Amino acid sequence: xxxxxxxxxxxCIGCRACQAACRECGDHDAKExxxxxxxxxxxxxxxxxxxxxxCKDPACARVCxxxxxxxxxxxxVLSAMEEKCIGCRNCTFACPFGIPKxxxxxxxxxxxxxxxxxxxxxxxxxxxxxxxxxAIRFIDFDEMQSLRRKRTQMNLxxxxxxxxxxxxxxxxxxxxVYTD
Length: 180
Prior knowledge:
Layout: E1 3-7, H1 17-24, E2 35-38, E3 47-50, H2 59-62, E4 69-71, E5 77-80, H3 90-94, E6 101-103, E7 108-110, H4 116-119, H5 126-130, E8 136-140, H6 141-157, E9 174-176
Antiparallel strand pairs: 1-8, 1-9, 2-3, 4-5, 6-7
Protein name: Anaerobic dimethyl sulfoxide reductase chain B
Organism: Halalkalibacter krulwichiae
InterPro entries: 4Fe4S_Fe-S-bd, 4Fe4S_Fe_S_CS, ET_IronSulfur_Cluster-Binding
């Protein structure tokens, strides 16, 4: 896999097509594993997609006493393996992003796995394949770098200058796995 998930929060229009597509993905059992949140519900209708950051050293996997959370060779952090998960929910408490969810009926954790059955063949995950505003994209590393440079230049043209407190508003977030 040579591609990453790239997010531009301000492009999100809150349509929730990514959530609907996630429910349709292979083994997701009609449950979405990504979410659309409001930035500040009391002040704005601006939304943003919330997906697993596929951490290089994932807290969810580190705290799992049953070793139920596997990381693929490409670095994709998968949902808890059903046969190993003991339902302790340590993973849901450990994730700093609040991504893993626990299904009390099935007694197992589930989270975004970047549609691994698709992404391992460089096919875009379901959410990225349906996003109408391109807030979620599945692109290669060079394209991501180009988009980040363009964003920085646009911010300078518009007279925006990041400070330590708001620097992440100026550079699009990205996550995923890629090789050097």
